[in-house]
Amino acid sequence: MRVVTWNVQWREREDWRARAPAIRDTLAALDPDVVCLQEVWATAGTSLAALLGAELGRHVAFGAPSLPPPPDPPERPDMAGVEVGVAVLSRWPLRSVAEHRFGSFHRPEVVALDVVADHPGGPLNVLTTCLDWEPELGSRRPAQAGALVRLVTDPARDGRLPVLLTGDLNTSPETPEIRALTAVMTDAWAAANGDEPGHTLRTANPLAPRAAWQIDRRIDYVLARPGSPAHPVVVERAFLAGEPVGGLHPADHDAVVADLRVP
User: Fold this and answer.
1) CA-based diameter of the chain, in Å?
2) Please, which pLDDT band fits residue 135 given cuts at 50, 70 and 90?
């Protein structure tokens, strides 16, 4: 089973219309079973997730609000009335879709999107979110991570298939927030690549914000826990994607791709 997580930089740049086909083409080449997206733009009529789902033949769930908050007032006309959210695209139909909300420094609340896909091997639980981004936010990001730990360890999610948590968690692997998650889940990148840095926000990408404290760090994750002791998580491969398409970088982050062995 191939899982992709990717922060796709909503409409922050004026080249977002040109980047959308590059995002689509990158995902089409990867042919993933599950795609989790952050910074997904949505309007009253459509969303990037809906457009990608239609073009790639995937079932789609979208949840909002998420981070970053849209500027108020809008910086450009094409940002007016645009929300930012997270999304899951699945090869298999979705049995259920739920939203879990928790507080943020930047917005009254943000969403962790929680879907159950109808995998041939049984229910597949997938959660995706985006956490606060400042290096020091008191109790905010640790509290968000704690809420995620409680969600992914809920025994109601147990089964033959792994429980997946993906997203732009906006902090690096050595921090207490990520350690709380990796204490109960397998970090697919580390399982496949050991100490290789795997930076997902890189100065080599001209779209990446140079002033961000997360630059040249790994802040995007595919995490998994076994659904049962009889079916441990096996990571066959993990790698980064998102190289330029036709000379254009699809987004400021690299995508994380993880190939998992499932029953």
Assistant:
1) 54
2) confident
